[in-house]
Amino acid sequence: MKNIFLFLAVSAAFVFTSCEGPEGPPGEPGGLVYGQVFETTENLQYDSASATYTSPFISFPVEVFESDVILAYRYEGSEVVNGTSVDIWNPLPRSYFYQDGTSDIFEYSFNHTFFDIQFVIDGNFDLTIIEPEFTTNQTFRIAVVPAEFATANLTMDDLMQGLQIDATDIEQISK
């Protein structure tokens, strides 16, 4: 009987003894990348072949994957809220009624690939009559968001909070 207990004790010692091996390689530095936001100011040029205004193609400064979602916003100005000036950003596409009493409508939209983005103004009337304030020095923010994080109808503030990005962190895309 003593031999059985001795055998069980030795067996238990082998079974319950943990083995330690060499440590694995260190992980990559930094946290998870939830997405990135970039800002660019563009002059849209009239394209008579398509009867639209278009920006040049703007290359993404980061790698964009097939599963990523591209969101774009147009700067509309700023307003004072509780004594603080805040920016107004409208998500694209965005339609505008051009003149009161008419059915003239134009729309800001965008096209993109995995490499670049282009902004477009399209409308149901002769766009050459719209004022330069709609085509010159237009500021856009572009967000590259992983698909699992993206949801519909994000405001710029919702997006910035969700991505944990401050306005000072936004990279300007150089031309």
TrEMBL record:
This is Dihydrolipoamide dehydrogenase. It comes from Ulvibacter litoralis. The lineage of its organism: Bacteria, Pseudomonadati, Bacteroidota, Flavobacteriia, Flavobacteriales.
